[in-house]
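Hey team,

Filing this mostly as a record. A colleague (T.K.) asked me to run one chain through the structure pipeline before their review meeting, and I want the input and output archived in the tracker in case anyone asks later how it was produced. No errors, nothing strange. Just documentation.

Input sequence:
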Amino acid sequence: MQIIKPKRLQKGDTVMIVSPSGGVPKELKGQFNNGVKFLESLGLKVKTGKNALGRYYYSSGTAEERLRDIHEAFADKSVKAVIMSIGGSTANNLLDGLDFDLIKNNPKIFSGISDGTTLLNPIFSKTGLITYHGPDLIFTFGEPMSAIIKENLIKTWLEGNVGKLQPNSDWKGLDKLNENEKYEGWQCVRKGKTKGKLIGGNITCLVNLENTAFKPDYRGAILFLESYMYNIAAIDQAFTHFRQAGIFDKINGVILGHFYGSHMEDKSQDRKAGEVFLEVAKDYSFPILEIGELGHCVENYIFPIGCKATIDAENKYFSIDEKTVY
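Output structure:
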């Protein structure tokens, strides 16, 4: 498969905001507006998809309306990046109708997190277009941003050379549930060094893609994982699914992120995600690195899906090894 990289963003470029899954709650409209202002502060122009602020029960619009916004964004020659406003649960509604040829023939930055996983990975698998896990409008650009996270954004989308990443010294939880968490920095779960293409995101979405025509190609991948409001028992279940589905037989390594809301009410039953993953993957030898800049309610590094990366778990090393845009 030929890898396609979108053009880098420059001042004066236009980005379009879409909501391919959930609707934007009224209480988050202020953060939506803050996100728009942040993008404008970078010298970018911002368009809003017709249904980006819409509502159809628990989604931003019908599947047809949400698809229309994405297709219009990719067909619009003036739009250089398409950014999801928020996550949700229904992005998989769109996969059957998504025009992969349109996307392939009009490559541009496409970014989101959470249920965005459901679109980012199939688009890369079907078209070869690098997609970007991490930034969305509300919970990335609508929140105060640490200097190192802003630097990563600029390096990834405006310059294209990311290189070595490191723990965020200003790490903080962004929600009442995790605002008092103490960050222990990056952790070596299992030693080893490897290279591979980045594939992954939210574990719920990745499980839902299995047994469909849209599941990722995990061969030679560095698999990165995070979750939202799965307790550790459910995370154990999901990790076991990845093993039983044969995914561990294909990958080169793993990056574990922040597993928001994973703690058990009964503390005697609580475990760390890294400990659970190591147990589930005990018959394998690939390296496992745990970081805090990946997941819900934390500031995220951008993971360019399909780009080559290196991890050295023992030395707590992670780098993006090729240009992320051209």
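Quick notes for T.K.: The chain has two domains: 14-143, 165-320. Residues 197 and 243 are 19 Å apart (CA to CA).
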